[in-house]
Structures are given as C-alpha cells and as structure tokens.
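for the writeup, i need someone to sanity check this before i put it in the appendix. the sequnce is what the collaborator sent (i think, or maybe the updated version? ugh). structure was predicted straight from it, no edits. if anything looks off just tell me and ill rerun, i have time this weekend
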Amino acid sequence: MAQGIDKGMPCFTMSVAARMVGLHAQTLRYYERAGLVRPTRTSGNKRLYSQNDIEKLLKVRRLTQEMGMSLSGAEAMLRMAGRMAHLEERMDAVLHALHGDSEPARVIDVTPIARRGKQSKRGSSQESGKRRAASHQ
C-alpha cells in the first residue's frame, strides 16, 4: 500500500525549487537570510527544500509580486495565517473533546451582534437609501 508523501521532507535542490516557484536562486537565498524559509542543509551544505517550503515560497511570491505587498508585510501575513491555522486546530480539538465523534462540528457565527442586524436589513436599508436620495432631487 502506497503511503502519502511527507510534505515536510526536504527533497528539492535550490535550482529545482527556484524553477518550481519562478524565482531566481539568489532570491531564495535572500528569503532564507530574511528568515522567511529555512531549507534543510545536507552534509555537503547544499540546501534542500520541502513541499511545505515550496508552498510558502509561492505564497510569498504571490503576496509580493502579484499583490504588491512588501516583504515584511508578506512575512507578517504568513505569520498571522499560521497563527489562525493553529487556533483553528485548537478550536477543532476543543469541539471534538466537547462533542466527541457523535456530533459533527458546527459553524459558529462570530459576527459581532451589532453587525448581525445590519446584515439582515441590508436589502431594506439600500431601498430606503434610494428613496431618500430620490426625495432630495
């Protein structure tokens, strides 16, 4: 039986990783110096990138090149996304501990109460806004 590939296993050399993400090898070195990615080193001191590293590099490239974000902004965004994923895992564990396997996890509306009423009235408030605008003409 074939097992899934470990996304954390370092297996891509720097030149392969650079081609995969569409960046220059020097850019990967810069990202390593900036602490955005930490490739594994072989005994010969060559860098090896994992699939997780590749995915992170693709996110950094998308944030910086396609969305115009600074490198420090991209780093902060990735850090926050990682924290959110960790919190979601913890929340799932708590829900599982509370409900066990007998009840599926529920989606909880975390919209502030003050905004909930505005969202449900959005259609009617748009109509009244149009009426007000028409009456001022």
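The radius of gyration is 23 Å. The longest strand covers residues 47-49.
thx in advance!!
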